[in-house]
């Protein structure tokens, strides 16, 4: 079994997150990583690919399913989030841009719907692909869209992730979640999102 690590995004001065906010959030992410590795060691689970871990949730005893799915989701969700933020402004492009325009008619409509859907939610916000359809979804606690519906997921492929828990923005934005989401949309690593979408296209 390999020990899972956290994704380290090199911090640069930016208009989205302060270094204090960023570092505090990374600590939470790192704690989920540690808890995941401890669980795997204690249960002697030997898998190499982190995504394979979703498949074994159903094989766990009932009293461990929720605990493990919460820890695993906390790790996976934070990894998606930190990988899809950027400290250098870049623009939506490629096949994901075409899909967004086809689904929402304009990029401005996509941003409007993203903010409206997520502004009052506590949990995780997602753009996912399911049956070739692009959707904005919400998951509670640490549920991941790849999880089956029975575990609070959607059997969907995540393309974009935003953390909407208070710890992700409270230092920089106090109670102004709308500004946090708006600034997030200006700091998306569209290269990462396009890569996720291209991987999906290769496997359908």
TrEMBL record:
Manganese/iron superoxide dismutase C-terminal domain residues: 94-196
CC annotations in GO: cytoplasm
Signal peptide boundaries: none
InterPro entries reported in the protein's UniProt record: Mn/Fe_SOD_C (IPR019832), Mn/Fe_SOD_N_sf (IPR036324), SOD_C_sf (IPR036314)
GO terms, molecular function: metal ion binding; superoxide dismutase activity
PANTHER family in UniProt: 37S RIBOSOMAL PROTEIN S26, MITOCHONDRIAL, SMALL RIBOSOMAL SUBUNIT PROTEIN MS42
Protein name (record): Superoxide dismutase
Source organism of the structure: Candidatus Carsonella ruddii
